[in-house]
Amino acid sequence: MTSIEIDSATPGRGLAGRFLLRTRRAFPFSVGVGIFWLAAMIFVAIFADLLRPYGITAMDLSSRLVGPGHPTHWLGTDELGRDVFSRLLQSIRISLVIAFGATILSAVFGTALGFAAAKFRGIVEHLVLALADFQAALPFLIMSLAVLAFFGSSMWLLVCLMGFYGWERYARIARGLAISASAQGYASAVVQLGATPMRVYVRHILPNIASTLIVSMTLTFPEIILMESGLSFLGLGVQPPESSLGNMVGFGREYLTTAPWIMLAPAAVIMLTTLSISLVGDWLRDKLDPTVR
Amino acid sequence: MSAPLIEASELVRIYHSRKGFFSKATHMRAVDGVSLKVMPGETLGIVGESGSGKSTLGRMLLGIDPAQAGAVRFDGRPMPRLGTAEWRALRARMQLVYQDPLAALDKRLPIARQIGEPLEIHKLAGPEERAARVAELMAAVGLRPDQAERFPHELSGGQRQRAVIARALASRPQLLVCDEPVAALDVSIQAQVVNMLRDLQEENGIAMVFISHDLKVVRNIADRVAVMYLGHIVEEASSDVLFRAPRHPYTKALVSSVPVPGQRLKDRTILQGEPPNPANRPSGCPFHPRCPLAAAICRAETPVLRWVGPNRSAACHMVSPEPASVAA
Amino acid sequence: MISFVLSRLVRAIVTIFAVMTFAFVVLRLSGDPAQVMLGPDVPLSAIEAFRSQWGLDQPLWMQYLAYIRSIVTGDFGVSMRDGMPAAQLVLERIPSTLQLTVPALLLQLAIGIPAGVYAALHRQSATDRGVIFLSVLGFTVPSFVLGLLLVLVFAVTFAVLPSGGYGSWQHAILPAITMSIGGIGILARFSRSAMIEVMGQPYVRTASAKGLKWRDVVWRHALPNAAVPIVTIVGFMVGSLIAGAVVVESIFSWPGIGRLLVVSVTNRDLPVVQCILLMIASAMVVSNLIVDLLYGWLDPRLRSQAAH
Fold first, then answer.
1. Beta strand pairing status for B69-74 and B77-78?
2. CB contact C270 to A (< 8 Å)
């Protein structure tokens, strides 16, 4: 109905105008920009090796701390003469890989716990809830700092640690939806057909709640990027010689007054990426699932 | 006389619910000492108001709700515990048809997949056989082949219930429990679905437990009828006998409320008092607060279901057995 | 109501216990404390002596009991760096952290809630869109980026405020603002959606339909009901403020608990880390408890439900 009103209200518009209107309605401009930016980031993450002009540790001592716009170092160089652009591309890759791995991990872990709570109820459910209470009692950054303090930092530990971020969100959703599906409806019908619990949860309940889970992943993903970059900024996340967006900002901080570009480029990438995911995620949420805030 | 396919003896199911942590728990005797038998190929109708425990009874017969006392025997063997491998395997032989077909179907799978799912679960057929069997089932319940790839929300209520019935029949079960299978459907479609169920049941020799609050529907399909009131069977008889000459005052009231075409509603017994509340069961005969014949004994003693004539029994202090001569 | 309070209290105690156990387990898993404390080049006899002195030769459950006992009596061990009692080190830093977190929380409440409510009452206006955009921007900008940008602008370019350190009230301005921005965004967004939901409720529409003054509708009917969800989110924000303090204090060299934590983590000063962990967890549990109780008090319907 709305399309008719709009068409009649704008009779003068040409084909191009109509096309624009249609895409505008499909998704707003900001969402379009967000999708474009995210696609570019994914592209960079995959092809970082091919795209970057220099190695990330390649030092060019003759041109240290040159500003952006330099003919061979587009975004300038750092205190050791390393190319900021190359380091940025590699950092995008590392940060995205960590965030992506951790998001998947936390979704799988949280959903499994939620299903376990729904399936066994009783003591298991209480345990999961107590674990969620525990998570709520310690800000995640603090807990991560403690674990890193005790174990030291490594890439693997970092991904696993970040994988605990936000699991309680998935657990809550998975538990709630699985319980309501089992109480009455398709899940109990499939149980009644003689299906094993595994089949009920994996083949029936999971596909039914997948869209809600994916929507929560768009909430968790930018938060994990922020968490990882925060830890790396504090020098406790990704360790040199490897580089992530957060630790680029952290090291660039010392040259804030003399060479702000070292810190500004990764900072801008972090902001644009989290902003894009938030915009696209909000839009997806409205489209797919109005029940999740 | 052959052995019954399913036999329940003295089934009891009590629900506990508590309002707050420290408040007293209330007990709800949903099913209270029910015994019944269903022969192979026979249809038993169970009628009663909502809250009479008829749905719980149906679930107990299938072993979905565990019995707190009493036992269910299927084909001579005790019902395995819910969730065990034996219980799951037994699903191929006994199936449930739900009241709300939309809730019973997975909204993300095309109906052909869902109809074939029991075959997949019980490994009853290879992929080709399965497709053939699904097509056969769809034809049997009156679904068109082009509807195979439809999703549940793309079908009408009647078509969905046909899909649910087809799924229930896929593994060629010997027992079908239908819990209000047509209550959610339009009246015009109810008769079609009931007739289809009856035809399928007769063709395949399936025993059926048909649960409904609708006496017309039960009369149409059942060989034998049990009337439930607050967790008890108050009267049981063959369908035509029960509807022609009900003995229990509750059955009388129910039967008299069904309009018969071409007849004026006369001798209507209108039920007095509150509808039954399973959480607050009266002492003695559960029906006595609403019974026109209630006497002192009814308040004190719960009547047991006993023989009152050939192939019929009732639980009422005021009903005496028919003289043998009349019964013959 | 009593059972509601009781069940929350039990949960809070269980949670604190879980955090204590977590600290114990992680501490024991991370290696032999004797080795860590004394270093690798110490003779075996010294390690043995150390072990028996600290009870490390006891079975694990005895150690656990001793650990719990010492924490309950307020003994959090001694800093491995300067030999001061860990509890004293941490307590000394609390006031300076509060000097940042309290103004930040007040800023969040004073800006976030009114902005969200105003946007909700003027839906689809330019102000509304501005509030939405700024709030999304607010919680997607990492605080370390924001802090550095503020330093770049106000301390480096215009040189009107100090770039870091501790002393006068001017030193607190940039860190407090940095700490509050994310929460302002979250709170504005949350208040907006809570308010919009409440304004759509039948009782609010009835109130305005029966001719109540607009102001009375908003103040007497809409706001009290929107307060319930807003209170919950404020509870969560206390946690994010504490986490934010870690980053912000590091940026501005502010001598608070957050900076102490980062320094102790870098030096692997385990007793201090453990002490901070327990302190923060207790603060969080208490604030969650207060929010829960406040929630129950604001929404009487929850009192009975929550007991389940």
1. antiparallel
2. yes
Q: How far is CA A160 from CA A163, A236, C19, C111, C158, in A?
A: 5, 15, 19, 37, 43
Chain C residues with beta carbon closer than 8 angstroms to that of A293: 193
- DSSP secondary structure letters along A94-128: HHHHHHHHHHHHHHHHHHHHHHHHHHH-HHHHHHH
Show residues of chain B in contact with C303, CB under 8 Å.
none
How many helices (H) does chain A have, and how many strands (E)?
13, 0
Structure token digits, residue C292: 């829960």
Q: Is residue A65's pLDDT more than 90? A: no
CB-based contact B45:B58 (threshold 8 Å): no
- Identify the weakest region by mean pLDDT among A16-25, A84-93, C14-23: A16-25
Residue C246: list chain A partners with CB under 8 A: 141-142, 145, 234
Q: Domain B6-93+173-314 adopts which CATH fold?
A: Rossmann fold (3.40.50)
**Inter-chain contact B104–A194, Cβ cutoff 8 Å?**
no
**DSSP-derived pairing of the beta strands B232-238 and B306-309:** unpaired
Question: Which residues of chain C make contact with B25, given a CB cutoff of 8 A?
Answer: none
Q: Quick one: CA torsion of A159, A162, A164, A165, rounded to 10 degrees?
A: -160
pTM exceeds 0.90 for this model: no
Q: Give the pLDDT of residue A8.
A: 40
Contact A271 C273 (CB under 8 A): no
pLDDT score recorded for residue B211: 93
pLDDT in tens, B197-237: 999 999 888 999 999 988 888 988 899 999 998 888 999 99
Q: Which chain B residues have a beta carbon less than 8 Å from that of C308?
A: 21
pLDDT along chain C (308 residues), means of 10: 77 84 74 62 73 69 81 78 82 90 92 91 86 85 87 84 80 90 88 85 82 81 81 78 87 89 81 85 84 73 46
pLDDT tens digits, residue range A218-274?
Answer: 878 888 888 888 888 888 888 877 888 888 888 888 887 788 888 888 888 988 998
CA pair distance B208, A33, nearest whole angstrom: 61
Residue of C nearest to A129 (CA): C11
**C-beta atoms surrounding B132 within 10 Å:** 12
Which residues on chain A place their C-beta less than 8 Å from a C-beta of chain C?
Answer: 130, 133-134, 136-143, 145-151, 222, 226, 229-230, 233-236, 246, 249-250, 253, 256-257, 260, 263, 267, 270-271, 274-275, 278-279, 282, 293
- Domains observed in chain A: 3-288 (1.10.3720.10)
> Which residues of chain B fall below pLDDT 70?
1, 17-25, 260-269, 322-328
Strands (E), chain A: none
ipTM above 0.85, yes or no: no
So where are chain B's domains? 6-93+173-314
Q: Hey, are the CB atoms on A186 and B105 less than 8 Å from each other?
A: yes
Sequence letter at residue C123: R
Q: Are strands B312-314 and B232-238 parallel, antiparallel or unpaired?
A: antiparallel
- Best residue in C129, C146, C148 for a mutation probing chain A (most A CBs within 10 Å): C148
- Strand extents, DSSP E, C31-143: none
pLDDT digits (tens, 9 = 90+) for C172-205: 889 999 999 988 988 898 888 888 888 878 888 8
Distances in Å between the Cα of B256 and the Cα atoms of B169, B275, B305, B309, C126 are 35, 17, 22, 21, 69
Give the full edge-to-edge strand order of the sheet including B26-38: B26-38, B6-17, B69-74, B77-78
Note whether B19 contacts C: Cβ–Cβ < 8 A: yes
Chains in contact with chain B (at least 3 beta-carbon pairs closer than 8 A): A, C
Which chain A residues are Cβ-neighbours of C143 within 8 angstroms? Answer: 230
Place of tokens 């565990």: B66
Q: How far is B265 from B218, CA to CA, in rounded Å?
A: 20
